[in-house]
Amino acid sequence: MSNSSPRPAAGSRRQALRHLATFMATSPFMSLADANGDPVQAGGGAQTGRPGGQGAPRDRPDVIRPPTYRDEIMKVINLHEFEDAARKSLSLAAYDYVAAGAGDELTLKANREAFSHYWIRRKVMVDVTKVDTSFELFGKKYDHPILLGPGGGKNIVMADGEKLSAQAARQSKAIMVGGQNQMLAEMGKAGQAPTWWGATLGEGTQAQAVEFAKRSEDAGASALCLTVDYPYTGARDRPSRDQWDPEWARTHVYGTPEFRAGFQAGMIDPYTPNLTWEWMKWVRPQTKLPIVMKGILTAEDARLAVENGVQAIIVSNHGARTLDGMGGTLDALPEVVEAVAGRVPVLVDGGIRRGGDVMKALALGAKAILIGRPFLWGLAAFGQDGVQRVVELLQGELRIALGLSGAGNLKAIDRSFIRPAWKAYRPGAVSGSASR
Ligand SMILES: Cc1cc2nc3c(=O)[nH]c(=O)nc-3n(C[C@H](O)[C@H](O)[C@H](O)COP(=O)(O)O)c2cc1C
């Protein structure tokens, strides 16, 4: 195509461009951002000195981005904000039911506060080109160490919430703990089930316990999770004030007033008060599946769990929904890890909201972590996509923490990556060597 319009001579055009480039390079007001949003000085390499600035060959790894979702989801930028998003779509009673901790919610606060009891010790000049969040459990490799904790409430916060959570777990490659056996068995037949564990709050008789194990195994569970911290329902003020009726939550029809007793202060509502180590004797010989015990908080119980054939322990206080006055789970983790002494994996949950929180838990010896409320908030606000986004955000934040701390991958994380916040540095206090 010919161009007949008058054009400046090639020489003067080049001169003008050179003037512009000189102005941009020397102006204190001019700075550009590179593709990652990091500042790059005009006419030069990256301000940070790393390769890949303007003109330099791209010899750094690709940007890893989690999947994107519709705008309203992408505007929710961290796990805390999913709670605000969920609140808008829930009745006060449903919101309170999920959010509540027992009593004065001291333990609920302690779960979060415990993460400020430790600081990450960052290492530099380590090649972290490869950042890897994968981990192994019971001989299988998983993409990341974020599990969806067991819990009722999925169908309360969202219609078909059990199914949507299972689909999200599959999509985001998170192990789902608990779920409806029949539904999961059907999903399994269609090749659509996530990796999931059967979950129970315990059974009062041997026949019931064995039946639970068999049913879960037949439905395709890859482990069994026994929650041991629920002999009685905890007294929770918020649902108590809302006259929460579990019968209504299940059937949308109000039960008789005694149904509302569950969370009321002053009442005592038995769940499995007769659960003892006998349960392990009943079930252990009846199943090939690993048995995971959830709700261990002390060294004594951890030792007993291992002696009774438990194959993994979850340090948990049930999301602070039972006995108020206990400390945060992160503070209980070191004592359990020490007692177990590497014989079985230890997992932890309670108040985990950030990638840095996951890093701290792993540095104190946890193999993996669970989240409870955050994925229920994601579900309540945005259904399946919301749950996926919650998991993917947390995994993304963990990736950043691994990249920035010098750990790079989960196997490399050990006690040398963490120090108690309350202790001032003393020579010799930090060995820097791996000890779990
Ligand atoms: C609404 C709700 C219901 C729960 N139900 C159970 C349950 O049935 N069994 C159980 O072991 N844990 C249950 N939990 C506890 C979670 O599995 C998990 O331990 C806890 O929520 C983790 O703390 P986080 O919510 O701060 O992440 C429940 C938690 C919530 C919020």
Q: How would you sum up this structure, described in words?
A:
The chain has three domains: 25-56, no CATH class; 73-232 and 270-420, Aldolase class I (TIM Barrel, Alpha-Beta Barrel); 236-267, no CATH class. The protein contains 16 helices and 14 strands. The chain has helices at residues 10-26, 71-74, 79-89, 92-99, 106-113, 154-157, 161-172, 181-189, 206-219, 237-241, 246-251, 278-283, 299-307, 329-340, 355-363, 373-405; strands at residues 32-33, 39-40, 118-120, 135-137, 140-142, 146-148, 176-177, 196-200, 224-227, 291-296, 312-315, 346-349, 368-371, 418-420. It has an eight-stranded parallel β-sheet. β11, α14 and β12 (346-349) form a beta-alpha-beta unit. It is globular, with a radius of gyration of 26 Å. Mean pLDDT is 87; it is low at 1-11, 21-53 and 432-436. Residues 98, 111, 149-153, 201, 227, 294, 316, 318-319, 321, 349-352, 370-373, 376 line the site of flavin mononucleotide (FMN).
Question: Which descriptors would you attach to this protein?
Answer:
single chain, 436 residues, alpha/beta, TIM Barrel, 3 domains, 8-stranded parallel beta sheet, two-stranded antiparallel ribbon, 16 helices, 38% helix, 11% strand, disordered N terminus, binds flavin mononucleotide
In short, what is this structure?
The chain has 436 residues and is α/β, with parallel strands linked by helices. Helix content is 38%, strand content 11%. The site of flavin mononucleotide has 23 residues, from strand 13 and helix 16.
